[in-house]
Amino acid sequence: MNKLKYLLAFGHLCSDINQGALAAVLPFLIAAYHYDYQTAATLVLVANVVGSVVQPAFGQLADKFNKPWLIGAGLFLAGGGMALTGVIENFSGLCVAVMISGVGIAMFHPQAAQLINRASTADNKAQSIGIFSFGGNLGFALGPVLMTAAVSIFGLRGTLIFILPEIIICILLKKYYNDLKNLNGNIAQKSGKSAGVDQWRPFMRLTAVVIGRSIIFHGFNTFLALYWIHELGQTEAVGNTVLSVYYAISAVSVLIGGKLADTFGYRTMIKISFAMLLTTIILLTLAENIYAAAILILPLGMAISFTYSPMIVLGQQYLPNHVGLASGVTLGLAISMGGIFAPILGTVADNFGLHATFQTIALIAILPLLVSFTLPPVKIKT
Fold it and tell me: How far apart are alpha carbons 118 and 63 in whole angstroms?
């Protein structure tokens, strides 16, 4: 089972490297085509809006059928769309390219998360999700590095390199396809019996928490490098390096967060993490120089990642009979909603500056913290 967990984690890397790259390509597109912040952020919107529409359908499909081929197809679309962003020169074409990438990412997450759940035991689910999430966060971290290197060496057409990781992972998935296909769920699912009590209202509250985190997450993904460039006077390379460091911290922290959640409880970890996140964002808005801001990247990456694994596992526990749907919402739909909010933050940046954008994110962070205290315990089937 462990080899399949690491294979799916590598697949998560190959999926989310494209999301990290999207944030990193924005400064190059702004420089090349003179887009304003709102226009650039619109690319983040269109990359997520289609994924938001199709994500629940892929989640339902994962609940009814085990279709590992969706993972490979999704990854190929995710990388293919990103590869085209440096080739297409008109904005409409760029929107289509990032939409293709978004659909691919939407195909990957529910099926992969469902298989991670099936490959886990009752006492290591958050840790398993942590391993899976580590791959995604590492992909986010490598995305800006690969994008910066590719564009610096080859120009905008260097984005074509993003199809290569997908070719590699698809070859590996083909090798282990039968093993993935044979992950048929637990005994209750096999026998057709209910796996537990579905708690839809608590799940909706959790979804609100995930959406709040997603807005914060996409806000920093989109504007952190731009903040370093335009507010702190650094180069595009330095801005994207800061973004990669932030992603790397997040990647390591998601492993730690999963282990802590298995030990201390999912709801407890969610509440502590959001309190830490709000405090860090407030301090970041008050930072007056590059050194103070750089120090805060550590707790920022830690806090936003500590929330990740426990929210996904808690969602799966709230809907034990719809694990694929729960995974599709917490990993995909709710995450995509944050990308849809990005142009609003872009409008704030255009009219009031990037500092005001960070202050807006701090205000938004209050909401998921408050809602996290309303999440009830999971009902145990008797």
Answer: 11
Task: Name the nearest CA neighbour of 299 among 310, 311, 315, 287.
Answer: 287
Which tokens sit at 269? 């970890």
Under a CB-based contact definition with an 8 Å cutoff, are residues 239 and 229 in contact?
Answer: yes
Query: Can you spell out the DSSP letters for 33-81?
Result: H---HHHHHHHHHHHHHHHHHHHHHHHHHHHH---THHHHHHHHHHHHH
* CA distances for 25 relative to 32, 84, 312, angstroms: 11, 12, 29
One-letter amino acid of 58: F
pLDDT at 218 over 70: yes
Joined tokens for residue 297: 């990247």
What pLDDT sits at residue 66?
67
Sign of the torsion angle spanned by Cα atoms 166, 172, 174, 179: negative
Write out the DSSP string of 348-380: HHHHH-HHHHHHHHHHHHHHHHHHHTTPPPPPP
Quote the pTM value.
0.76
The confidence score (pLDDT) of residue 251 equals 81
Among residues 132, 241, 178, 199, which one has the least CA distance to residue 377? 199
For 242-272, the pLDDT digits (tens) are 888 888 898 888 888 888 988 889 999 999 9
